[in-house]
């Protein structure tokens, strides 16, 4: 089924309030300034699914039902589905300026678990895959927005889940019941939780024998009893948060949250892994190939807006593209590099026997390293082009700009090119401030996992000795040039 933005907003209003910020309960996340911009943006993605002009970008034909569905409710079974994922996100970033977690992370978890549940059932005779299939059909039928909770509290990073003093540092099964499980623990920095109707959970890393309680994957309603959500808010910048938002306020945003699971009941039908330590590291492997290929398009989409805002600033400052063309070219090249690398990893991907399609791991992980680097360069060049007004603390607040005492004069000080108003300059600068040093920065560095894990996969997947052999053959070197393995 397809849902409109209005239907989505209505359903969001009906959810049990369980999101807090500044120590207070947010009664209605669809109107509270902490979460409203994000939820409005998610509604926009629903509307773009129903708009004939953008429908093909945001929807596809479901592999399970043959019906048209929002992309984020479907299983991706062919390269075109992954390319569709990328292109939807690039378009979404261009329209909203930011990332929409509930149309991404839960979807990717569902796809990551597709192959893992299939393999577990083959080995253990369990019925996880059938449960996941039913959940996927339920998500499609209800056109659900789905957040994805992977990152546990983790505590001492030098020790595993089972070695933490507080078991809650990793989400775990506290009690097995005939009809389901009771779970407890923390998931942290979860993107777009406020806009989600369901949350899919999976392990952040592989578990060892003895850590069965932590080998857990499941789905819960975002407003399930026992779940408390603390919003870290990335909807807007801190300046707009602390000072009244006016015509310069950011109308876009995502959110990130800390989730406290306190004895949450999950019915058996929504449990997709329960103790299988051997398979507990597999979901993150599958998740990261999909996520790390597609995020190339997310950062490219935001990069497109950053280029536009930087050039817009140049023009409102009374300059043309000419003095900045080298930098603008380089920004565009960076955008196309992460986008193209994502496409490349998809072109070299493979189907799993379960039907799900996964991009090539080496290319996807190499892309993660680029995604953790190039967008920061794009932002640096944008600030360079735009001028000091975009740097922290160099733009007056809306309240000052509208002060009855000095507002008019202050605005005159911000006048730019003829044919533009000072307000145009402020608005463009505020957007760029948000995109480069503010809350608009997507999870380039750590979203989807740290670049170090990408480098680890590159190290493990690259055939170093074989490369030396290519060189030895060409250079006619007889010595084997092998490194002795350390004992
Ligand atoms: C904008 C944003 C959105 C996000 N959205 C989501 C989301 O929707 N869902 C979700 O589940 N998560 C989300 N995350 C969380 C993200 O996945 C994590 O931030 C990421 O996996 C890194 O974990 P961490 O922040 O706990 O860093 P840490 O684990 O504290 O890592 C810090 C550094 O230490 C290194 N390190 C950590 N452990 C070790 C070790 N044992 N040995 C050597 N080096 C180590 C890491 O590589 C990294 O360089 C989001 C993050 C951001 C920034």
Quick overview of this protein structure:
Helix content is 45%, strand content 14%. It has helices at residues 5-13, 36-50, 55-58, 79-96, 105-124, 128-142, 238-242, 282-316, 325-347, 361-371, 374-386, 398-401, 407-413, 422-436, 451-461, 464-475, and strands at residues 19-21, 24-25, 59-61, 68-70, 146-149, 172-177, 180-191, 198-201, 216-221, 227-231, 256-267, 271-274, 350-351, 357-358.
Task: Set down the secondary structure blueprint.
Layout: H1 5-13, E1 19-21, E2 24-25, H2 36-50, H3 55-58, E3 59-61, E4 68-70, H4 79-96, H5 105-124, H6 128-142, E5 146-149, E6 172-177, E7 180-191, E8 198-201, E9 216-221, E10 227-231, H7 238-242, E11 256-267, E12 271-274, H8 282-316, H9 325-347, E13 350-351, E14 357-358, H10 361-371, H11 374-386, H12 398-401, H13 407-413, H14 422-436, H15 451-461, H16 464-475
Parallel strand pairs: 1-10, 5-8
Antiparallel strand pairs: 1-2, 3-4, 6-7, 7-11, 8-9, 9-12, 10-11, 13-14
Bound molecules: flavin-adenine dinucleotide.
Ligand names: flavin-adenine dinucleotide
The strands making up the biggest β-sheet line up spatially as 2-1-10-11-7-6
CATH architecture assignment name of the largest domain: Beta Barrel
Helix content: 40-55%
Distance between the termini: 59 Å
Radius of gyration: 24 Å
Largest sheet: 6 strands, mixed
- Shape category: globular
Order of helices and strands: HEEHHEEHHHEEEEEEHEEHHEEHHHHHHH
CATH superfamily of the largest domain: Butyryl-CoA Dehydrogenase, subunit A, domain 2
Number of domain modules = 2
Query: Which CATH C-level class of the largest domain is it?
Result: Mainly Beta
**CATH fold field value of the largest domain:** Butyryl-CoA Dehydrogenase, subunit A, domain 2
Mean pLDDT: 94
Oligomer: single chain
How many helical stretches? 16
Which class best fits the helix and strand makeup?
alpha+beta
């Amino acid at each position: 089924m397809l849902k409109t933005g209005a239907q989505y907003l209505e359903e969001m209003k009906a959810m049990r309030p369980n999101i807090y910020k500044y120590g207070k309960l947010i009664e209605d996340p669809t109107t509270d300034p902490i979460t409203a911009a994000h939820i409005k943006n998610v509604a926009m993605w629903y509307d773009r699914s129903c708009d004939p002009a953008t429908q093909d970008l945001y929807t596809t034909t479901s592999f399970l039902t043959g019906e048209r569905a929002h992309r984020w409710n479907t299983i991706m079974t062919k390269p075109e589905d992954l390319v569709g994922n990328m292109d939807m996100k690039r378009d979404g970033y261009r329209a909203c300026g930011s990332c929409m977690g509930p149309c991404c992370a839960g979807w990717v978890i569902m796809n990551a678990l597709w192959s893992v549940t299939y393999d577990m059932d083959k080995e253990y005779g369990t019925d996880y895959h059938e449960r996941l299939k039913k959940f996927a059909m339920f998500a499609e039928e209800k056109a659900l927005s789905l957040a994805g909770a992977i990152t546990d509290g983790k505590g001492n990073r030098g020790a595993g889940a089972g070695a933490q003093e507080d078991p809650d540092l990793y989400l775990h099964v506290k009690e097995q019941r005939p009809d389901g499980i009771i779970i407890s623990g923390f998931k942290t920095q979860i993107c777009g939780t406020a806009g989600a109707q369901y949350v899919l959970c999976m392990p952040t890393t592989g578990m060892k024998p003895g850590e069965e309680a932590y080998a857990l994957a499941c789905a819960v309603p975002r407003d399930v009893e026992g779940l408390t959500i603390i919003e870290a808010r990335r909807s807007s910048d801190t300046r707009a948060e602390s000072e009244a938002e006016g015509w310069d306020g950011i109308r876009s945003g995502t959110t990130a949250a800390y989730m406290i699971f306190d004895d949450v009941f999950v019915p058996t039908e929504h449990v997709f892994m329960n103790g299988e330590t051997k398979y507990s590291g597999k979901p993150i492997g599958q998740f990261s190939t999909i996520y790390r290929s597609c995020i190339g398009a997310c950062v490219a989409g935001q990069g497109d807006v950053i280029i536009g805002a930087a050039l817009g600033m140049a023009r409102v400052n009374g300059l043309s593209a000419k003095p900045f063309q080298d930098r603008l070219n380089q920004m565009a090249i960076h955008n196309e590099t992460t986008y193209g690398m994502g496409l490349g990893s998809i072109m070299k991907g493979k189907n799993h026997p379960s039907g799900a399609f996964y991009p090539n791991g080496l290319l996807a992980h190499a892309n993660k390293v680029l995604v953790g680097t190039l967008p920061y360069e794009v932002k640096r060049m944008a600030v360079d082009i735009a001028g000091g007004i975009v740097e922290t603390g160099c733009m007056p607040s809306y309240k000052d700009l509208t002060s009855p005492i000095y507002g008019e004069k202050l605005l005159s000080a911000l006048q730019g090119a003829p044919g533009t108003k000072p307000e145009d300059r402020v608005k463009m600068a505020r957007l760029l401030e948000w995109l480069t040093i503010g809350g608009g920065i997507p999870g380039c560095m750590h979203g989807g996992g740290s670049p170090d894990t990408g480098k680890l996969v590159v190290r493990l997947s690259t055939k170093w000795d074989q490369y030396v052999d290519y060189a030895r053959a060409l250079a006619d070197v007889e010595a084997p040039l092998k490194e002795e393995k350390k004992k």
